[in-house]
């Protein structure tokens, strides 16, 4: 009986070792990580995010903006910038997601993968925070010169190709410029995937709520006595009591909603 049990156990061990040899019951092979290099190109045509500003953007009351108003007493309201804070304005967008991605990455060693989606984090570089000038909506809507702020970014990738992961990217020295209904962040130096001569460019278009807020800037639509009490995000409202006008500070803009745009990385 003992001999029969021993024989059966030996047979079972042989069978089990055979299964293991064919990968049954064993841990799967580790994924290969690709560090994107020359010949890699990714474009994601959809992006969503929210950005927070460290200082609220508010426009000052400038008397000359209202000089042609039909109400002389309204037109005579003097300059007032008591609610306007100075910059620099730091930007933080820690959770941006880009989808609808096309293109592939390669490591130059015969490994290639496509990308399903990209996660990005963007923030102002504390060493290069930008201008200390007054933080106004008008300054963003109608800038008088290029921004001096620089940004840092971290980018991670979700591979769409089984068996492969993609090394993340870090970027420093990126710059911002206005474009369309939003802004573009590009330039700088990349490390990790797309390091060296790689190129990164992110276009972020603000959502309708943010756009409406910026359209209330005095740079575009100076307030009139006819809409004196209407709430504008960027401009002070005005109230007439017994022929005397008084101003109420605007709430300002502290958040930017990003509804569309694109992310492009290449080398």
Descriptive notes:
This protein has 267 residues and is mainly beta. The chain has 4 helices and 13 strands. The chain has an 8-stranded antiparallel β-barrel with strand order 2-3-4-5-7-8-10-13. A hairpin with a 2-residue loop joins β11 and β12. The N and C termini lie far apart (70 Å). Mean pLDDT is 89; it is low at 1-28.
Beta-strand percentage? 35-45%
Distance between the termini: 70 Å
Number of strands: 13
Weakly predicted, low-confidence segments = 1-28
Mean pLDDT figure: 89
Q: Which geometry do the CA atoms define?
A: elongated
Which structural category do the helix and sheet elements fall into? mainly beta
Number of helices: 4
- Portion in helices: 10-25%
Radius of gyration: 29 Å
Report the biggest beta sheet as strand number plus sense, adding barrel if it closes.
8 strands, antiparallel, barrel
Order of helices and strands: HEEHEEHEEEEEEHEEE
Strand order of the largest sheet: 2-3-4-5-7-8-10-13
Salient structural properties:
mainly beta; 13 strands; 267 residues; disordered N terminus
Q: Quick gist of this model?
A:
The chain is 14% helix and 42% strand. It has helices at residues 2-21, 72-75, 137-141, 208-215, and strands at 32-34, 41-57, 91-106, 112-124, 151-159, 164-166, 169-179, 182-186, 189-192, 199-206, 237-241, 244-248, 253-266.
